Amino acid sequence: MAKSFVGGVHPPCRKDRTHALPIERLPVPKTVVIPLSQHTGKVNAPLVAVGDRVLLGQKIGDIDAPIACPVHASVSGRVTAVEMRYHTNGREVLSIVIENDFTDELHPTVQPKNLNDMSAADVLRWLREAGIVGMGGGGFPTHAKLAPPPGGTLDTVLLNGAECEPYLTADHRVMVEWADDVILGLRCLMKAAGVKQGYIGVEVNKTDALTALRQAIAPALDIQIVPLAVKYPQGAEQQLIAACLNRTVPKGKRPVHIGVVVNNVHTAQAIAHSLRTGFPSIERVITVDGACVERPGNFLVRVGTSFADILAVCGLASEPCKLLSGGPMMGMAMHTSAVPVSKCTSGILALSRAESPAGEPMTCVRCAACIDVCPMFIYPTLIAQYGERGRLEEAEKYGALVCHECGACTYACPSHIPLMQWIRRAKSDIYARRERG
Amino acid sequence: MDIKKLTVSSSPHFHSKNSVRRAMLWVLAALTPAALFAVYYYGAYVLVLLLAGIVTAVACEALILMLRKKPVSGALDGSAAVTGLLLALNVPAGAPWWLVVIGSFLAIGIGKQVFGGIGHNPFNPALAARAILVVSWPARMTDWVGPGLVSAATPLAQYRAGNVVPSYLDLFFGFRPGSLGEMSVFLLLVGGLTLIFLKIIDWKIPVSFVGTVALLTWVLPREGQTAFFAGDPLFHVLSGGLILGAFFMATDWTTSPITKRGRIVMGVGAGIITAIIRLYGGLPEGVTFAILIMNACTPLIDRFTLGKSFGSARGAS
Q1: Boundaries of domain holding B138
Q2: Which of B13, B119, B311 sits opposite A322 (nearest CB)?
Q3: Closest C-alpha to B317, from B309, B261, A404
Q4: B310 to chain A, minimum CA–CA distance in Å?
Q5: Looking at the whole model, is its pTM more than 0.90?
Q6: CA distances from A88 to A68, B164, B317 (A)
Q7: CA distances in angstroms from B296 to A55, B52, B99, listed in the order given
Q8: Are B85 and B31 in contact (CB under 8 A)?
Q9: Shortest alpha-carbon distance between residue B117 and chain A (Å)
Q10: Residue B88 — very low, low, confident or very high, per pLDDT cuts 50/70/90?
Q11: In order of start, what are the domains of chain A with their CATH numbers?
Q12: What region, left, alpha or beta, does residue A391 occupy, with left being phi > 0 and alpha being psi -120 to 50 degrees?
């Protein structure tokens, strides 16, 4: 019986076009744009200047801060600019532009590692140097995630292979094609965290991934594969932990407080790849799909490749209404295709008007659909209404700060009210007021 | 291909097929079998009453929206049609057509638009209008008839008078006098369960409402009697407007609680009031007033039944 959580919605999966397509390597572009921030935390300082020659895998941005993670050159070539460029988060971020010389000359630091020779502390240091961040979208630096809470210990590493967002099949392909790497990466994470038990949660619509992972772990007992019901947001951290481990993350706390670390399956694969080859995190698999895309698929691309370069290869059959970075439930709508793929870009979707219709918002009819589907058991319509009127105490009381922005409420609302947007606004208003004091 | 114009908006970029109109059309569809049964049982005149209710409601909604300078298309969202149909289903077959027209007008005008229209009315509009009609035209609103429009008493009135009542089977399939929409429990259940299956209504209100009425009418002695646990719960569940009210009126989105526990409170409360009125009140039937009273309590119920968010410790909010 597949495990699950309370609440949630069942959006159409739309994975048929890409889930069976093997991962394909895309041509490396002429120019890459490497944002100095591809993670949650402090923005890196550039380590190179305009005119410098950089080598493949060379560290080009870093900063001494507890929550930060360096970035590396994904091609060899010359730095042509260090300037503000649009990032997939919608903001301009200081970025390093590299003109590819197509030699892929390796930096001397690119050396394979042996997990058995490293202590847990060595692994943590190395994870940071390799630029490993959460590749599911959050981008939290992995080494920082593995630090136990003050006075507490970690007991479980949980890999997220739910991939509950419609369209996206990149994680699915990673699990099918690189199952051994996913398991090796998980063992590496378990070593760094000093834990004995690992879990991988996978939605049951990915039968081939479940089979591949089971074959890759057999006959070990330290890792369990957990089949999960197909429901959104199954891959949200709290919901995944509730389903796989039957444990609850207390309100306002992070999973480490109950001894759990959650990482994406692609992150685990990237760790294993880095161990085996010595390459830092400079490439990832993305799903490219949407009705406007002529040749959908799963592509291995270098970090810094622009959406425009990728869409040029995949082809656009018609002009998209929306260009998304990520899935349709939580992804960001881009205003330009001149944005680079970062370590946390899981997909590029070029959606037609029919795929992403804009409903006309009506009055709330108090049907409570938003409340019934909310996996965090909060009151979306009340937060939205109070937030809209600037009554932030009430918005907070009804759960504004508990919201992790899965968007199930907006998806379900029969009045087409942009609840998620109002809740985001209420949250930022509450935080802004706290800062003012 | 060049991309010239991209829409930028907050996620999610997907929407379910849910819409108010879709839900309202399903409610209309779910009520249709029971309504058609009334046409079959009483005759074609009933069709006039049903259409009078729907047409008046939609026309009034459109007119008032126009006066309020709101988009008139709102009249076609299905909610006015549902209100009009429910109002018509709440009158006896002997009612004149103009009574339905007045009732429908009151439902939309006084019951709904006066408060700001859809989503803002505190009381179920059809029931609010029915209450006004019962008070204003008491004789016409109790002009119960049988097939062929000959006068007849409702099972609840017969029961109260100590007379013979129809068999459970007749009650279940609807062969008894009553308001147009309340007769066939069987067809109402078919419609109501469909709405529950489609998640348009929550099972909690009808189940707790009907369950409470059954329990209390079984346990409590009716007026003039003293024996406890001697009531006839099945008769009470099958007669009157309980099933129509519990599945189609107490579940009205706008006027029922939005919290999960609140919906149970709503159902239990309405059940208690219904049972008390039926057993001890001055009227044979109490569903209308039970629901209206619980509608008035809805904001309070919501306030005291707020659930805790995911991961909240016991005792914390």
Answers
A1: 20-303
A2: B13
A3: B309
A4: 5
A5: yes
A6: 18, 76, 36
A7: 72, 28, 26
A8: yes
A9: 9
A10: very high
A11: 115-277 (3.40.50.11540), 369-436 (no CATH)
A12: beta
